[in-house]
Amino acid sequence: METVAKRLYEGMFLVDSAQAAADWEGTLSVIETILKRADAEVVSMQKWQERRLAYDIDHKARGTYILSYFKADGPRIAGIEKDVLLSEKVMRVLVLGTEKRPAEMIERDIKGEPADKPAESAASAAPAEKPKDVPAEPAKDAEPEKPAEKPSEPVAGSTPAPESETAATEPEKAAE
Fold first, then answer.
1. Do residues 98 and 106 lie in contact, with contact meaning Cβ atoms separated by under 8 Å?
2. How many domains does one find in the chain?
3. How far, in Å, CA of 89 to CA of 70, rounded?
4. What is the pLDDT of residues 17-31, one digit of tens each?
5. What does the alpha-carbon distance between residue 131 and residue 58 come to, in Å, rounded to a whole number?
6. Taking a C-beta distance cutoff of 8 angstroms, is the pair 64, 49 a contact?
7. Contact of 64 with 47, CB cutoff 8 Å
8. Each residue of 50-90: pLDDT tens digit?
């Protein structure tokens, strides 16, 4: 029998906000049970956000997202998705592989740090400089530039502009 190495996956579970608020531990245990049935090893599980849904799901307008990282065999992911479809507590799930995500982003998610937290390095402490090739902004009290005016008379040596079609059709309209 061949052993398949477990890979790290990211799972975003969507649950009803009312049920999650009423029984948070029960909601987490349902998700843990789904993952354990697939022989997945839970690395991290935390509340991500509670938001209004773009459209109603099962007549629910709000949902709570739970972000989970777990290690599992690839063929077992289909079983997790099937268990979610059969679950009454979990409305949706999205499972993604983490191979293409930077390791520092995954570590930050597992630790529960916000994504917009600035990096603590000397580069971030220095004030941002403007690139030298960017033109300076005009003064606020300066007048805006006017578009170049078209000459009203033809310039010597240039071909005259064709007459408009409306001028040719006006005598025809008057004859009718």
1. yes
2. 1
3. 20
4. 999 999 999 999 999
5. 51
6. yes
7. yes
8. 999 999 998 999 999 999 999 999 999 999 999 999 998 99
Is 50 inside a domain boundary? yes
Residue 63 — φ and ψ, nearest 5°? -145, 155
Contact predicate 18/71, CB 8 Å: no
Whole-model pTM: value is 0.61
The number of beta carbons lying within 10 Å of the beta carbon of residue 162 is 6
Q: Crossing angle of helices 77-86/24-37, nearest 10°?
A: 140
Please report whether residue 26 resides in a domain: yes
Please tell me the distance from the alpha carbon of residue 76 to that of residue 84, in angstroms, as a whole number. 13
> Where does the chain show beta strands of DSSP type E?
7-16, 41-57, 60-72, 90-97
Q: List the domain range (segments joined by +) for residue 31.
A: 7-116
Residue 70, CA distances (Å) to 21, 49, 167 in order? 24, 19, 76
Within a domain: residue 142? no
Residue at 154 is within a domain:
no
* Cβ burial 42-74 (10 Å sphere, 16+ → b, else e): beebeebeeeeeeeeeeeeeebbbbbbbbebee
Q: What is the CATH number of the domain that holds 90?
A: 3.30.70.60
